Amino acid sequence: MREEIITSGRMNDKIDPFLNIWHWEIPLYLFLGGLAAGILFFAAFYSIRGKEKEFPSAIEKAPLIVPALLIIGLISLFLDLNHKLYFWRLYTTIRLESPMSWGAWVLMIITPLSFIWAAIHLKKVYPNFKWPFPWLDIVEEFFIKYKKVLAWSMLVSALILGMYTGILLSAFNARPLWNTSILGPLFLVSGLSTGAATNILFAKTHLEKKTFSTIDLALIGIELFLIVHLFMGLLASTQVQIEAANLFLGGPYTAVFWVLVVLIGMIIPAVIEILELWKFKIPLLIPAIMVLFGGVLLRFIITFAGQTSRWLY
Hints:
This protein has helices spanning 2-6, 25-48, 56-61, 66-80, 99-119, 122-125, 134-145, 147-170, 183-202, 206-235, 239-246, 254-277, 285-308. It is an all-alpha fold. It has one domain (2-308): Formate dehydrogenase/DMSO reductase fold (Up-down Bundle). The model is unreliable at 1-22 (pLDDT under 50).
């Protein structure tokens, strides 16, 4: 089932992925899952710390888009399945050794959590909002009463979801580029970075913008470290993994990865955020959008490049 989801008939063809419009489902799902995980993590983290007044956008506003992100991601994943009518079999068992099983169950948990979290904050974001049925007010009061339990559940689920988006690929042994333990932490950190960038876009106060700009700067530094470590690990491994690394070191993915993902999606936003922290008047909207752009391309390029890396027979 795991291989079926990653390598449907469309994902297995040998057409140049940059020219094939049918390669968007899996990387889009990985990006939206990571972005949702990042937004929910920060919402839960600052709620647990009792920072509702200091970070209202991160806790109340940004999470409102998460249910839509997860639904679109799940639809894109569903569209990539070869046998769509049998997806329910993932929920007939729990296999601890299967990343796909972990992913299916964590999505089953975090999706309703995201709806509940958004619902209990609707009245704060939209003061005139009223539930159509009185019993919904009772349900809302119940979850508000146990909001900290909800936040802890969401925080743990978000971390697992963010890590899973990378592990889903790394567990696929047939692709040397993906078969590395770095992808899990890399995609988790990238998801947190895009979540921080989204919070910058929603932020209304200087404190929120400065805080998430600083957090994003640190996360970009960790991302760059993990990317360097990724290629060092590949170059120190077998011949096929060296060839997989060479796809980005002089090969067909070199320019698009190092220019669009690393330079435009990480280094330039980091420089802008540093300048802003040094009191230069630069709109943080710019680096936030660039980080989201880099996060999207990171998933697409890693997914596409992995299709061309394979073991020699």
